[in-house]
Design brief:
With about 650 residues, the chain is α+β, with helices and mostly antiparallel strands. It is built from 26 helices and 17 strands. It starts with a helix and ends with a helix. The N terminus is likely disordered.
């Protein structure tokens, strides 16, 4: 239920934002103000999910009951439980994220991404290894290689052949081939490849896989996509003799697939050594530039539809391509492309820039700032107190120091408070521990600013306030309703029985039922023994759990026990046992069965005989009692003027 609620909250259409002075208090429930926008938002959302719209007065009554239940949950501390705090804190910032970003920056990023979409670029690069133990030295090496090429002391092609760790492109003088803005390349690489002017060298860029020096060679409109199949004979790691055998095999396959009436897909399925596509007849689906290795891509795009290539090699082995079709790559209008672009920016992490810009603006506006000198102050503290090596005593002394970590809303927060609950590694030496303390304090500051921004958002943004109120109230309402209604109705056997006896007239049947324990056995001897054992429980009030446990302990998996109550025609076994109808076809696992305490009854005798219906009715009864109690316990005050305004807005829609 909670997951469904969260999904609805995330996907539901938010109400139009209202300025606070046009969003009056509609009602006060148990001392808590409820604004008109929240009522209108939930009314619209509720009716959008119903087959028939609820009237204003019906919904107003239901809404008051809803807010009374939330007030009761809060009065009983549901919002202070560890489970609530954990769940709510986890999702409150997540729900806020779409609102907490610099929208102008994000829009500019999306438009820049869109501007790249109609173009593809031919790119060369030199890739250099990053040594994790000394990234600075690796960067210096990459810079020196770039300087060699920039000063024309070495050609780009020679530098690629000598220094690049991308063996495939290095052999081609660094040429990678054509890429698009959606090529499956690290985003930092794609950004630099498109941002660097044609024919010039990029700055050294870290893709996460290595340092790159990129030179865009050409730019042209998109080539579109092709749909192709292929057959592969692997040669990676083979000696010359092995490669020669694979060449002979691919030549043989080529003669087969170019023969009249040949079925390329069938041959690919039987012969190709590409396990991913072979099972699908060599089908690679639709792909554009930058998705395949250059040699493969060049051949695929050079073929005509329906044409089979001659065998050719790539770093993987020998290929034959059959091009089935092609299509022009038409770029949609920006408004149509924008949602997918935004999703891509969010997925690859670029949207974080807009989020960081938003939080930086909040920090400036609220007088919140991180102390930039934490590392030096911590190091000085250790030195001043004679702690060359760091142990628990040194760390304890740090936490009792007066060092300021940051200010939030102008209020100073000590390093001790900032580090409380913040993961931080204590190193044996003072310098590393000081650096770790500074990083931990920065993380704590970022979270504090995000929380301050979220609190500000709840005050200033009606859409977000309604969303977060709905989510918070939903968690509390679920937990309290479970305590007061759902779980109680299911587990309160005495209450069920009393309710049944008080309302027995409501639970009549149109036809008699046969009520029994039906005991199945895997042999006639087990059945006879089970019948004899069951006879010891012939008393009228058999405890079902005790009876079932006793039978299982005695006969284990040789018997199966079902408590059944069914009308004629509803169950083949009770039809036979209770109503004299022919026995059903024997079940190979349970060929033998008998009834224990079986009898035909014309009306229900106990709550268990109508359990499904009764629990539903009992839940409604418990909820009615609960609501009556809430209306007596908590005060509700309606703002008549705001109610009139709400009615007017809703009636005019």
């Amino acid at each position: 239920m909670k997951k469904t609620f969260v999904a609805a909250a995330l996907l539901g259409t938010a109400a139009a934002s209202l300025a606070k002075d046009s969003d009056p208090v509609l009602m006060t429930v148990a001392g808590t103000d409820v604004r008109l926008s929240e009522f209108e938002y939930l009314y619209n959302k509720n009716n959008a999910q119903q087959s028939q719209a609820m009237s204003f007065d019906e919904y107003l009554g239901m809404f008051v009951n809803y807010k009374l239940k939330v007030a009761d949950a809060q009065a009983h501390g549901v919002d202070t439980t560890a489970a609530f705090v954990s769940e709510f804190s986890k999702y409150s910032l997540e729900l806020a994220q779409p609102y907490m970003r610099d929208n102008e920056m994000l829009e500019n990023m999306a438009k820049a991404e869109y501007a790249r979409m109609p173009k593809e670029r031919y790119v060369s690069h030199i890739m250099l290894r990053i040594d994790p133990a000394d990234e600075a030295a690796s960067l210096a090496t990459a810079d020196s290689v770039r300087q060699l090429v920039a000063s024309e002391k070495m050609t780009f092609e020679d530098a690629a052949l000598q220094y690049s760790i991308d063996a495939g492109s290095a052999r081609q003088g660094g040429r990678m081939g054509w890429i698009t803005s959606s090529s499956r390349l690290p985003q930092a690489f794609t950004d630099m490849a498109y941002d660097t002017p044609i024919g010039t060298l990029s700055p050294v860029v870290n893709s996460g896989y290595g340092y790159h020096i990129i030179r865009p060679e050409q730019e042209r409109p998109l080539s579109g996509e092709v749909n192709a199949r292929h057959i592969l004979m692997l040669t990676q790691g083979m000696d010359e003799a092995g490669q020669a055998r694979q060449k002979a095999r691919i030549d043989s396959v080529y003669r087969v697939v170019t023969a009249p009436g040949a079925d390329f897909a069938d041959v690919a399925r039987r012969c190709s050594e590409d396990p991913g596509s072979a099972r699908n007849g060599g089908d690679l689906g639709w792909f554009g530039r930058g998705r395949m290795v250059q040699e493969f891509e060049d051949v695929a795009f050079s073929l005509k539809d329906g044409e089979v290539s001659k065998p050719f090699t790539s770093a993987f082995g020998w290929h034959i391509i059959y091009r089935e079709a092609h299509r022009a790559d038409t770029v949609p209008a920006y408004a149509e492309a924008r949602p997918a672009i935004i999703r891509r920016l969010e997925q690859d992490g670029r949207a974080l820039k807009a989020e960081k810009a938003y939080l930086a603006a909040v920090a400036r506006r609220t007088g919140s700032e991180l102390n930039p000198n934490i590392e030096a102050l911590v190091a000085s503290h250790f030195a001043d107190n004679g702690f060359a090596a760091i142990d628990s005593a040194a760390y304890a002394s740090l936490l009792s120091s007066e060092i300021e970590a940051y200010k939030i809303h102008g209020r100073s927060v000590s390093l001790s408070d900032a580090l409380r609950g913040e993961p931080m590694r204590i190193a044996p030496d003072a310098a590393t521990t000081a650096r770790n303390a500074a990083m931990a304090a920065a993380n704590a500051f970022d979270r504090a600013v995000a929380e301050a921004a979220r609190a500000e958002l709840a005050e200033t943004n009606t859409d977000y306030r309604n969303l977060i109120n709905e989510y918070r109230d939903g968690i509390m309402l679920f937990d309290r309703s479970n305590q007061m209604v759902w779980e109680k109705a299911t587990s309160d056997k005495d209450g069920q029985e009393h309710f049944f006896l008080a309302n027995k007239a409501n639970y009549g049947w149109e036809a008699p039922r046969y009520k029994a324990y039906v005991i199945f056995a895997n042999s006639d001897s087990v059945m006879n023994l089970a019948r004899e054992h069951a006879s010891a429980f012939e008393s009228a009030a058999v405890d079902q759990d005790e009876f079932t446990k006793s039978m299982k302990q005695k006969f284990g998996n040789n018997v199966k026990i079902e408590k059944v109550i069914a009308a004629k025609g509803e169950n083949p076994y009770t039809d036979n046992l209770g109503f004299g109808m022919p026995a059903p076809a024997p079940n190979s696992r349970w060929p033998h069965y008998f009834a224990f305490q079986g009898k035909v009854i014309v009306s229900p005798e106990a709550a268990e005989d109508v359990r499904g219906r009764l629990i539903s009715d009992y839940q409604n009864h418990l909820e009615s009692l609960w609501v009556d109690s809430l209306r007596k316990t908590y005060k509700v005050k309606l703002n008549k003027k705001a109610v009139k305004e709400a009615r007017k807005r809703i009636d005019n829609k």
